[in-house]
């Protein structure tokens, strides 16, 4: 297992360094959505419900819609201004009887592993909870958010049990529960007798996920009978030249422009007629090009002498 949090349990003057590990895992078999015709994976795009355009992730902000239909958006700066809890201590607030805790408040469980030098205070806290049949109500900061939690004992480990806040638990508002129902003594006796006949000590190991087992068997049966096909590889889309290609193209163009400039030599004094002639015949042989330059050479000297 991999620790997802480290800190210390603090109660009274005692501090127990611990690491937290997720106590549960999900074994559900996850399926991909694929195109039945060719097996290609189905992709989802983020589109705007107003203009139908695809929206880049960088352009998405968090929004809250009020009951009056007003939209309030929150930027990253707004979220950064919120107070966040980043402490690394599990502060014990009080110890309460275990039977006073409603399991409906339970959320996620984490095993607490003591530091090598904290085995004794860890065992002391564990045994105290067992002997008094109590749980410790604590507050802890997980993922930058403060949570209410419990410390309870499971075998030899102390479990950090995060909890929902009380206002997150709904009340069963069913009118039928308030109706008067007449129960005869004989019916109560028979119901109690049925409960006793099915009574047993709870052993979770005798239960298993039959649906998951059936899915595993189905997949294995299809695999062994050859009812499979190679997973397709999506074709790489041509997204145009990359930045390196653009850079090389720019450098090549610069080199060619520099060569053209140095070859012209006195291009600034060349007449427009000569430039037009060069454009019409860019593929002349080197010898012809040299001859042309020699022919053009006397022209600038004549212009130089004329003003004198």
From TrEMBL:
<keyword id="KW-0233">DNA recombination</keyword>
<keyword id="KW-0234">DNA repair</keyword>
<dbReference type="Pfam" id="PF02735">
    <property type="entry name" value="Ku"/>
</dbReference>
<comment type="subunit">
    <text>Homodimer. Interacts with LigD.</text>
</comment>
<feature type="compositionally biased region" description="Basic residues">
    <location>
        <begin position="278"/>
        <end position="289"/>
    </location>
</feature>
<dbReference type="InterPro" id="IPR016194">
    <property type="entry name" value="SPOC-like_C_dom_sf"/>
</dbReference>
<comment type="similarity">
    <text>Belongs to the prokaryotic Ku family.</text>
</comment>
<feature type="region of interest" description="Disordered">
    <location>
        <begin position="222"/>
        <end position="308"/>
    </location>
</feature>
<dbReference type="InterPro" id="IPR006164">
    <property type="entry name" value="DNA_bd_Ku70/Ku80"/>
</dbReference>
<feature type="domain" description="Ku">
    <location>
        <begin position="52"/>
        <end position="180"/>
    </location>
</feature>
<feature type="compositionally biased region" description="Low complexity">
    <location>
        <begin position="257"/>
        <end position="274"/>
    </location>
</feature>
<dbReference type="InterPro" id="IPR009187">
    <property type="entry name" value="Prok_Ku"/>
</dbReference>
<keyword id="KW-0238">DNA-binding</keyword>
<keyword id="KW-0227">DNA damage</keyword>
<protein>
    <recommendedName>
        <fullName>Non-homologous end joining protein Ku</fullName>
    </recommendedName>
</protein>
<comment type="function">
    <text>With LigD forms a non-homologous end joining (NHEJ) DNA repair enzyme, which repairs dsDNA breaks with reduced fidelity. Binds linear dsDNA with 5'- and 3'- overhangs but not closed circular dsDNA nor ssDNA. Recruits and stimulates the ligase activity of LigD.</text>
</comment>
